[in-house]
Amino acid sequence: MEVMKITVQEYYRTWEEICLEKLREIGRCSAAEWAAAMGYGENRNGVTTVIKRIRKNMPDKLKVYYEKRPRLYEAL
Q1: Which of 44, 48, 62, 67 gives 31 a disulfide partner, CB atoms 3.0 to 4.6 angstroms apart?
Q2: b or e along 29-47 (b: 16 or more beta carbons within 10 Å of the residue's beta carbon)?
Q3: Domain assignment of residue 42, given as a range
């Protein structure tokens, strides 16, 4: 009798990657809508630090529409 071994490779994601994945699901939206989708409620301050880190570390994965408010964000 042959025993098959199944290996599971663990994949760790950062919070920024999780937020970008959620943004891909919901499409182009404002920071308030993105925060609500992430479970922060109506408080958009929950994603502002994440947006800053994404724009600094992964600028090619986030597109920002309009430099003045209201800004819209889209994951690339």
Answers
A1: 44
A2: eebbbbbbebeeeeebebb
A3: 15-75
